[in-house]
Amino acid sequence: MPSPVAVIAGNGSLPGEVEAALRASGRVACIIAIRGEAAESTRARAQIELGWGEIGRLYRFLREAGCKDVLLIGGVSRRPDFTSILGDLGTLRRLPAILKALIGGDDSLLTKVIGLFEVEGYRVVGIQDVAPELLAAPGVLGRIKPAEDSIRDLKIALQATEKLGELDIGQASVATHGRVIALEGAEGTDAMLQRCADLRNSGRVKAKGKTGVLVKAAKPHQDLRVDLPTIGPRTVELAAAAQLAGIAVEAGRALISQREETLRMADAAGLFIYGIDRQALWPGERHG
User: Fold this and answer.
1) LpxI N-terminal domain: from which residue to which, for each copy (predicted)?
2) Is residue 192's pLDDT more than 60?
């Protein structure tokens, strides 16, 4: 029997979906809920709940549970600071390495967090390793198909997102009528979409009907084991409020949370959901 997978769970519904996928594949999930981040439903199923300063307890739990693989999943709304990581003796013993991990951008932080587990002998796995069915497939994913002008906006937003990712700033952009109108920063995708709605409502972006495309894509050199771009029902709700025509994510490199509900809501709102295949968008060319 394969060893249990330690699922270190942040916020959102994905930890529960991952647990169900692991169970369906015959593997056991040991849920570690991050205190102050994990949803109530995740906490109810968790074997243990830990704060940032309980690294010693975390490694003791992993050892006693027989976990060799570790999966980091779910959102983290607040990056840990110095005061939040002062905790048990196991944390203090590893403090120099932990402090180094807190320095740098998001990509740097996540790479260093992976390193903290690997130096202890654990293997950090990604969704593609344990639950690939949660990743977006290529092509049209709902009932609505993108029009030609939406494909044009999609390409422009994808190129903008790639440039954004090169600077380790964000994973999403919105383009409409052939120009980029929003780039994701530290505020996150939801706040960016609310900004797009404000631009439409104020008349700063003049358009009739549904137009424009949200693109979410992994950063060019991103470690795909952590922090994959994710969309879900809330993304659809905000994209509809911003009067966008659709949402596009990279096939095989992005997650769709609550897939059935997300696609149902998109169909009802008249929004397309599209899995980006670069070769299909730029046939005969090398891109990305």
Assistant:
1) 5-134
2) yes
pLDDT digits (tens, 9 = 90+) for 4-43: 999 999 899 999 999 999 999 999 999 999 988 899 999 9
173 Cβ contact partners less than 8 Å away, ≥ 6 residues apart: 157, 158, 160, 161, 164, 180, 182, 183, 184, 214, 215
β partners of residue 182: 174
Q: Which numeric CATH code is attached to 5-132?
A: 3.40.50.20
DSSP letter (8 states) at residue 147: P
* 135-281 CATH fold: Cytidine Deaminase; domain 2 (3.40.140)
Report the SS3 class of residue 189: helix
- Token pair, residue 5, equals 């997978």
pTM for this predicted structure:
0.85
Helix (H) / strand (E) element for 150: namely helix 148-166
Lowest mean pLDDT among 154-163, 204-213, 277-286: 277-286
Domains of the chain, residue spans: 5-132, 135-281
**Beta-strand pair 246-250/213-216:** parallel
Beta carbons within 8 Å of 168's beta carbon, 6+ residues apart: 105, 106, 107, 108, 219
